[in-house]
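Fig. S4 source data, part A: sequence.
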Amino acid sequence: MKPDTRYQAAENTNSSGPAVWGAIVFRRDLFKRLAAPTRVTQISAPGGSGKTVLLESWVRETGMADSVAWLRVPAGEHDPQRFWISLLDALRATTAGSKLVRPLTGAPNPDGWAVVERLLADLSELEDPLWLVIDDVHELRSAEALTQLELLLLRAPGMLRFVLTTRGHLRLGLHRLRLAGELTEIRFADLQFTPGDARELLRAVGIELSDRAVEMLVRRTEGWAAGLRLAALSLAGRPDPERFATEFSGNERTVAEYLLAEVLDRQPEPVRRLLLRTSICDRISGELADLLTGGTGGERTLQDLEEAGAFVLSLDLRRSWFRYHQLFADLLRMELRRTEPEAVGALHTAAADWYAAHGYLVEAVRHAQAAQDWQRAVRLLSDEFVGFFLDGQAATVHDLLASFPADIVAGDAELSALAAADQVLRGSPDTAERHLARATEMSASAPEERRGRLQAVLAMLRLISAQEHGNLAAVAREAERLLGPAQAAEEQIELGDDLRTLALVNLGIAELWALRPGEAERHLEQGGELARQTGRPFLEFSAMAHRVWAASFRSFGSAAEQYARAVELAHEHGWSENSFAAVAYTGLGAIRVWQMRLTEAASLLEHAERVLRPESEPAAGVVLNQARGMLALARGRDADALTAFRAAERLAGLLITAHPRSAPMRAQTVQTLVRLGQKEQAWQVLARLDRSERGEMRVALATLRLAENNPRAAVSALARVLDGSAPVTNLGWLTKAFLLEAIARDTLGERAAAGRALERALDLAEPDGAVFAFVMHPAPGLLEWHAGHGTAHAALISQILDLLARKKEKTAPGEPLRLLEPLTESESRVLGYLPTSLPAPEIAAELTLSVNTVRTHMRHLYAKLGAHRRTEAVKRARALGLLAPYSR
């Protein structure tokens, strides 16, 4: 007898009794608890208890599908980024979420904390209730993602309500919500079917039993929803259902196995075959079902089973993808192994091929592994490894590699190479080197048809390793080897678009650090265009950010506009907290220092400092610390500047080869020592450096000569800079050189020559507003004199003089203590905890903030209070009346 799948209301539609749709009971008593005005509802019960069915029926009954975001956590989810991308996608599928929630694009090294902060900001304008259902939260195995989810639960706006389903205890700090009355809990006892619920379920499939038989069935199953559904399906069409119900007995496992056999035995053979053979898949489509069964009409059969409530759930609105209830799937797999053990491996292999052909590569690898077809699994993973990495699925790849037996990894060159790449990405260079050495040693014995791909992966590994260590020559060598024609047949490398893009971008970055901006721009332009064509936004962004850096050698103004677009692009894709975005923030921050837009510069550089990993990316750290030192100089904090430049020097020492960007940094160190009056130390630094090649060192020497009152020697030092034979990094340094020339000539009494040099310095500074040099080497008298002698830059001179006057006022002795900028509300809250002994993590817990957010607020506080340490910040805050005179 085919179940009637039409909606059937209870006899009294105004009653609070259950209603059913198909074989789903509408339990309105629980609907009221789901609608409770609490922040979180937790449904905790074993598998088969009806958690998901309850929520589906509640959404259907209330008609609020457009206000419910539904996310089911897949089995064994270890990948935080995939979890957050799926969660944001679920929210964006709702009416309100589509307007407020920005999409998130996968990228390497994701920061889930930043995703949460970004999501909280997006939802702060939520006006109507929005429900987020997270089904099977117990499958989320990432401790990091769970902690981030806890933060979201605790800080979400009031209009965002959560419903969490789980089979066991959740490692979430829900006790706070429980104490605050913000947690509704539905447990297994609440989900157990009553005799009334069971009676309505049986009626839905056309079965009428006596009250005694229904009560006996409920008692024997202990109200277990899955057992009752299976019982209802088995009872349909029996000649004596009353007797079957009263004789039904056994514990949960026995009941489930018995009913499974009963259900399968009573199904038509095509349906039975479909259920068994498709049970190997976590999700199934009609096309895949037809492939695995050799039949047709699989999608219609799955839709009929879902409508009948036979433990089949659709995963999309089109009802084209399905999954089985987990318990049902487990039992089906057991029965498949019992009845067709020889078919299991072949089914996994067929599923692997189908998933691979349709672009579901993670599932393809997993099925190949389940079939123990290791060569197929290796080939699938190796062919798509670069794509997985560029899509930000490093955690997923790590799990896939962990599923290979250790002896298979050790004996396969490709797997060893992938293991090396995995360890590089996880920050374990020593382990990576061991895997890489083994892969290189075995590469000659790899199958001929796979050798080219293996060589490409090995080259990519060497390229990434060289880039991280700042070995510019090795980067160029490996990139050119990837991009250039092979010298011999045995050296041929299979280079797909992803690898070619990666090679072009890394080659461009190496040329940028080597101060070859023209070549860098060309290769970065090519790499960015190829990334755009192949749909790799992460690589396109990386190419764009570094290409703008190269452009800044010519023009700060144009580069600043492009950097601003890069920063906006990072926000759009949810990448602003990723380490690779630091280059855009650092570059724009450095330009803002040259332009003396210091508040904006500080915010950008603090952001870059927060997300960058300087120990693992020392080359980028050198540039960031150089920019931080310049900012400190601009603010008159010369000692802090020296600390930043020395930090850059330390990071430069971690690089394999000398970093060309070190020349400007060391020149700044010399100039800072001069500002601090430490001329002897400045000479010691200069004595260790080659002053003939780079113009920055000659500018530093000129600064020292002027401090020694030797303007003639300063003019001599600057000569090769001004005629172009000693190049400088950008126009800011050239502006500084002409300004120092003007000061030296003026000191020598050569006013005409001084005027010409000063006008040239103003020519260079005017287009981009890059006036940093005029603040570092103030010459107000010379500027005032020049303003009255035919300059084309009278307005700019006026702005510089105003800037110098304001700077002098801020540093005047006896000036009353005051805040450099007002505190925000969040900064004030953090300030209240500074006098305590609580470390940043405990302050974060008290304020329900992330640790990164608290540390950012602390840095802002120090800057605004003009302090360098916590105790100093507290002292100044008390002097300003922002804190009580005594500790909390």
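Fig. S4 source data, part B ends here. Residues 1-21, 486-493, 811-816 have pLDDT under 50 and may be disordered.
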